[in-house]
Amino acid sequence: MFKPGLIDQLNSKKTNMTKEPTKKKATGKSTAESNEPVRIDITRKKFRFGDFIAEKVIKGVAFLSITIIVLIFFFVFREAFPIFSHSKEVKPTTTEQATQDVQETYGAVTDKTSKTEEVQETYGDVTDKPIKEETQETYGAVTDSAQVQEQYGVQTNDTSVTTDPSDTYTVSAGSGFDDNQSAIKTLVTKDWIPVSDKPRYGLLALIVGTFKITLISLLFAAPIAILAALYTAVFANKKMKEIIKPTIELLAGFPSVVIGFFALMVLATFLQEIFHYETRLNSFVGGIAMGIAAIPIIFTITEDALTAVPKSFFEASLAIGASKWQTAFFVILPAATPGIFAAILLGIGRVFGETMIALMATGNAAQMDLNPFSSVRTLAATIGAEMAEVVFGDTHYNVLFLIGSLLFIFTFIINAIAEFYVKGKLMKRIQGK
Amino acid sequence: MIKSFKKNIKGIVIEGITLASALLIIAIVIIMLTVIIIGGKDQLSWEFLTSFPTDGMTKGGIFPAIYGTALLVIIMSIAAVPFGTITAIYLTEYAKENSIIAKTIRFAVRTLAVIPSIIYGLFGLGFFIKFVGAHIDGAFYGGELKWGQPNLLWASLTMALLTLPVVIVSVEEALKTVPQELRAASLALGATKWQTIQKVVIPGSLSGIMTGTILAVSRGAGEVAPILFTGAAYYLATLPGLSDQFMVLGYHIYVLTTQSANVDQTLPIQFGTTCVLLMLTFILNMTAVILRYRIRKKKTN
Question: What ipTM does the predicted assembly reach?
Fold first, then answer.
């Protein structure tokens, strides 16, 4: 076998050594009758120019994928950015108005705080610890916007209005200004009411909904996909492998709109008959449907990780007297855990950004609770449903792009973790450090 | 063998569970296929495929949606396949396996593959329509709205970005099956590197490029999220050109099931359209799976 490096060596040798064989080859076909050395030089030069262009083009195009990612970063964030910048531009020109506005908010303070208190009370009634944890987590996820608010609070200090950053935080809930200032503040509330006189862009319900549905779909898809991969990698004979693998590939090729249609028309009715819940379309149905969409990804990556475990592990385990299933569960599965972790991560990424199934099968109501049988609205579905009707350049438009940025950052990070952390660990484990 | 199985009931049960999950996946695929095909088979007819929707989309065919899907997929392939192939050639032929550039490109390709499709839609809107399109309008049409709005071209290019990683991955896989000996032989005969790629490597991996194209087409035909707001339309009375909005099978299904006033009335059309889309992607994927299977066989031989 030749190694790639060998070719490079050959290449350099070829150019360094006598150039005659090359010449003969170059002219051998085209001008076989006349062997004039001068002509040969010309043809060689000509060829090299073509090569030069081709190689430069290839190298240039190769960077396209990197360029696209940079462009996506730039353009999605660019459209989301006005939420944060707009208010700053407006502020200095209309200082008096701004102060008045803020005073008005003060009038509204009592109402708003009482409102939030009410909400908190109902929380206490309905829920136990898990919900609180959940909401805290999502708060953590939105710290970016919270920070921006604090910055803004500092700015209002400059205009000689004594507003504490922490105060503006609570005041903000639901106060209905037309400018973007209030839009930012509503981001960390749970009301998603973008189209009204007092639009509110609370992302919490959407984020909680997205996580809820991701959890449901993973609880459904991950065990099935991993066990099936284990079967394919360890137990299955060749014939079964030849059935399972193409089937998975076909499932991967199912358009998500078809899976969504199936969930909407068949699965929803079917599951309702079994579980007897009220709303026909809910996060459970959506979660199962998204799980179906995520199975191929989890399966494929897990299966790759399992087959990458060296045969010697398998044989050694059998040689000590372990049975096949013991080997599978206590030797091969643990050895491949980083790969399985990556598979689950990418499955999360798939479900998190899934749009069409979410649009069709989840009910699309922005409610914030942890009941698996209530309707939810995911981040991606919100973009998909509302972007077409929105006014360009509007705050709503910018908020939708902000949601897009959040999705993008999230999947980017997930992929980066799966790529670097897991790969390094897997290599270490399998190759024995 | 049989003795050890009899001894170990636990082993059989556990193996049975793993087998059951594998069978469950197969069952899901079969159920989805049969339900949709049975639901849609009565609707399928030559007339359904070749006529326009009538009576406010409650009757008639889906020809404009098929036409739009075909155009979308063709323009997308023209954009995605050459660029994807060239990137794959760079990765296998030029880049050194562990160089930073190659690693970065590979990471970028994988990231592109996992970015949610709706983000591509946002990008298409923000970049192609609001940036490129608007500037073209400003420069050539005096600010008149022509390209700065959702249309077929921008939707196709958005879809091309989405399918780029699909092409890159399958072509790369195929390029790796071309034996190093062939490359070495070509170089030894005096061919330059570019000649080797042109005359030896690419012909040897044509089936891989085909597979990549087919997979990309199948993906592009089925995705809806990226074109939701970059060009797909609810209903059009005429067939689209490059700068028009267009109808697509997937979007047609979405609109009929969720946006139309009378969902029950259009149920047969919904099943029919879904059936057409599913059969289309199914056949494409089947072809790709078979082609890929052959490539892998060639590799092991």
Answer: 0.91
